Amino acid sequence: MRHSTEIQTLLQALLRSSEQEKIIYFPIRHHSPACAWHIQQLIRAEKPAAVLIEGPSDITELIPFILHAKTRAPFAVYTTYIPAKVADETLRSDPHRFAGYYPFCDYSPELVALREGAKVKANLQFIDLTFTDQARESETNSQIRDLQQESYLQRSKYISLLIKKSGCRNHDELWDHLFESSFLTLETTQFIHNVAAYCYMARQDSPTKLLQSDGTIARETAMAMAIQAARSQITGKILVVTGGFHTVALPSMVQQSLKEPTRPKKNPLEESQTVLMRYSFEQLDAINGYAAGMPAPEYYQRIWQSIQTYNSQSDHPFLTVTNEWLVDISAQTRSHRHMSGLSTADAIAALEQSRRLAQFRGHPAPLREDLLDGVRSCFVKGAMDADGLLVMEFVAGLLRGDRIGDLPVDVGVPPIVDDFRKQATRFRLQIQTSIAKSVTLDLYRKANHRRISRFLHRLQFLSIPFGSVITGPDFVKGRGLDRIQEIWEYRWTPQTESVLIERSLYGSTIEEAAIHQIQTEIDHLEEHGKGRSATEAIAMVIQACCMGMQHHAQYILTLIANQISEDSAFDSLIAAMNQLVLLWQSREPLEAQTLETIPELILMLYQRSCYLIPDLVNSPIEAANAILDGFCTVRELVQTQAQLDSELFLSALANLSNAASSNPVISGGAAGILYTSGSLDRPQVIALAIGYLNSSQVRVGAEFLRGLLRTCREIAWNVSELLVAIDEQLSTWDEASFLGILPELRLAFAEFTPQETDKIAEAVQICMAKPIWATLITLS
Fold first, then answer.
1. Which pLDDT score, from 0 to 100, does residue 132 have?
2. Are 14 and 229 in contact (CB under 8 A)?
3. Distance (Å, whole) CA 560 – CA 562
4. Which of 238, 471, 497, 535 is the most buried (most CB within 10 A)?
5. What is the pLDDT of residues 664-700, one digit of tens each?
6. Does position 63 have pLDDT exceeding 90, yes or no?
């Protein structure tokens, strides 16, 4: 009873139009054609002097561009805010950066209110808190927000119960059932009352504390004060267009004496911007995660277009659109490679099914779910969880649409966005559609393809969601270098330009932002204790070359030369040296010929790593594999790089081999390298192995053997004396000792290929024939 009285009071307040109270409140659901149509009718009938709309107040200055003749929906207002405490941080350490989207399509009630309001020369104004103030007021940590989100309506217990009682499947179907189905037959006053009652009941289970903590109360206070100001300044009727959740609270707040809250003044270090950007139906689709408005935007776009030409003599707009969709769907399935084509008879059957379902559900014509149920009934020929999934996914894509809006040239997009568009157009990359495309680039033979690759690499380096490498040479990681082509998959989305807008804080072009990011990454490494890592820095050099920024790569190389002497990590130095060798070998596609200091840096890294080798003798056992890999890498580089003195490497290994070792795996690895190079002869390596095998600690011999076989595999089948020594040691162990050392022995032989295992078996057969060897060979 209390709710009934309060609703009646609220409904009376929403449509007062006497001289004492000239405000008309219109509750909407964002992107609802029904709400948009009634707003259109209301403005044409009432001709208000002012139209006040929910939305950040700083969007008001963009209204001339929103209403520009060349502006084509969908588009969005994109707004960002970076608090002062993080305004000077790096691009990637931004946990307190905030961004918000405010999308518009042709059937958005807000956009219809602006267009119709402009026709009657009304004063147009957005009245919500700016996004900066919303971010300050809210206690949530959401970084990217939908500024029209309807989370409270979707979580409402009242609406959940209403969904169950009405037999609907979700909030969207319930809304269509209650409001989209019959709006053409309702007076605007009655439509407003219905939406207001719906939103009032939905608000009842939202605690005031929650509304305060997320900034809702602060936003509504700001809107109420803007309404008060307009009421005192404007003669004539005022139309207030806000989300229904807010509308039901505003009349009582406007009647109160509100005081402007104290807000902090803008800090000079804060960064914020509000701009217009293109948007797509794919992003607008509620099914894809958009938190406000309706699903299937292309479907409702056609509904809106049909409504504009509707008259009492024509078919119901929903019936007209349902018929069009079924014909389109059946026709397009015939060209789909994974679906069997549908006939005209199928389309006729689906239309009849949709009409009968609508009649059964009390709809004047088929709604979206009636259409989809007709498709499920007549277009799915197999199981719903097999063929049905493919059909419904295909239909969902059609109903979603792939429209992308457009903005006039003089809208004033950030220079970096303009630079992106011009380069993408010059390289013939398609950015007028959100459908994924691919491009194949010949890096070795076509200079223009290398320029396209650099452009895409710069975008990837800046974390711009646009393109990704599917296959091709990875110069940074040294993989696939035998490939001469690079294949990219790319796709424009609104996030492409929104992230570009964020990056505009760091440069007016893609190249400038990339330069800033490179320097930021270097500073970041230094600050976090990785500045002395040659590997990290050289990866940046190669990345710079991939982006066509060789002059900046040369600067990084200069820094690396100063850091090499401070890098004490052997594996880092070896990896860095290997990376530089690969860079020098790949200098043609990367156009790195101008980096003439690379050979000198390779030599410096080689000398530094050789200097560190003797100290590796006491490395922990878990580091052994990485160190042995490093030994093998250096051995290969010495054989291919003429400027590297092999004696320096071998001398360092000899010092390590002669030192008292606490890591026999590394000592064994050094012995293997020395033997293959001729620095150790056959008797010497046998004597060394026998010494370790006869150690009082049984495990030491097995560990030495593991290192030796890792760097000199062929010794296992070429040196029979080693096999005899191993056999003699095995014969001294009892069964318990053998089983205890077996895991380490297994590790020593585990990496041999089947062919190599056969060679070892043949060598063992020649030297001796004992059962215990059969066990060992089987394990290998």
1. 82
2. no
3. 5
4. 497
5. 888 888 888 898 888 888 888 888 888 887 777 777 7
6. yes
Q: Is 771 helix (H, G, I), strand (E, B) or coil?
A: helix
Secondary structure of 83-121 in HEC code, one letter for each residue:
CHHHCCCCCCCCCCCEEEEEEECCCCHHHHHHHHHHHCC
Full strand arrangement of the beta sheet holding 238-243? 23-28, 238-243, 50-56, 123-128
What pLDDT score does 206 carry? 84
635: which 2 tokens?
């051995």
Give ∠ CA 779-625-709 in degrees, rounded to 5.
50
Whether omega for the bond prior to residue 48 falls within 30 degrees of 0, making it cis, is no
How many residues appear in the chain? 780
Q: Is 60 exposed, middle or buried (0-12, 13-18, 19+ CB in 10 A)?
A: middle
If 0-12 CB within 10 Å is exposed, 13-18 middle and 19+ buried, where does residue 139 land?
exposed
pLDDT digits (tens, 9 = 90+) for 544-594: 888 888 777 777 777 777 777 777 788 888 888 888 888 787 777 877 777
Spatial distance between the Cα atoms of 413 and 274, rounded to a whole number of angstroms: 10
Same domain, 142 and 255: yes
What's the CA gap between 13 and 51, in Å, rounded?
17
Does some domain include residue 609?
no
pTM of the model: 0.70
Give the Cα separation of 570 and 610 in Å (integer): 9
User: Strands, E, within 392-478: which ranges?
Assistant: 437-442, 467-471
Q: Is residue 538 part of a domain?
A: no
Q: Is 668 in a helix, a strand, or coil?
A: helix
CA distances from 449 to 426, 428, 469, 541, 753 (A): 12, 11, 14, 21, 41
Question: Both 203 and 327 in a single domain?
Answer: no
Q: What CA–CA distance (Å, rounded) separates 193 from 237?
A: 19
Instruction: Check if the beta carbon of residue 224 is closer than 8 Å to that of residue 179.
Output: no
- Based on the domain organization, do 136 and 246 belong to the same domain? yes
For the cut 50, the answer to whether the pLDDT of residue 197 exceeds it is yes
User: Which residues are bridge partners to 440 per DSSP?
Assistant: 487
Same domain, yes or no, for 379 and 421? Answer: no
Residue at 704: amino acid letter: F
CB-based contacts of 416: which residues, under 8 Å, 6+ apart?
Answer: 500, 501, 503, 504, 507, 508, 509, 510, 512, 513
Same domain, 65 and 161: yes
How many Cβ atoms from other residues are within 10 Å of residue 444's Cβ? 14
| CA-based nearest residue to 595, from 582, 607, 606 | 582
pLDDT value of position 162: 92
Arithmetic mean of pLDDT, 732-757: 78
Whether 477 and 353 share a structural domain? no
- Structural domain harbouring 485: 413-511
Please list the residues that pair with 82 across neighbouring strands: 271
Q: What are the backbone angles phi and psi of residue 563, rounded to the nearest 5°?
A: -95, -20
Better-predicted residue by pLDDT, 441 or 531: 441
Last residue of a domain, one of 248, 279, 310: 279
Residue 123 falls within a domain, yes or no?
Answer: yes
DSSP string, 128-163: EPPHHHHHHH-----SEEETT--HHHHH-HHHHHHH
The answer to whether residues 587 and 549 touch, using CB atoms and an 8 Å cutoff, is no
CA 426 – CA 245 distance, rounded (Å): 47
**Which own/partner pairs from 20-25 qualify as long-range (CB within 8 Å, at least 24 positions apart)?**
22/231, 22/236, 22/237, 22/238, 23/227, 23/231, 23/237, 23/238, 23/240, 23/251, 23/254, 24/48, 24/237, 24/238, 24/239, 24/240, 25/192, 25/196, 25/240, 25/242, 25/247, 25/250, 25/251
CA dist 723 → 46, 388, 418, 691, 773 (Å): 102, 66, 71, 14, 10
Q: Which residues contact 772 (CB under 8 A, 6 or more apart)?
A: 727, 730, 731, 738
Q: Do 368 and 468 share a domain, yes or no?
A: no
Tally the domains of the chain.
Answer: 4
Do the beta carbons of residue 234 and residue 49 sit within 8 Å?
yes
Same structural domain, 443 and 342: no
Which of 395, 427, 443 is the last residue before a domain boundary? 395
Flag whether 727 is in a domain.
yes
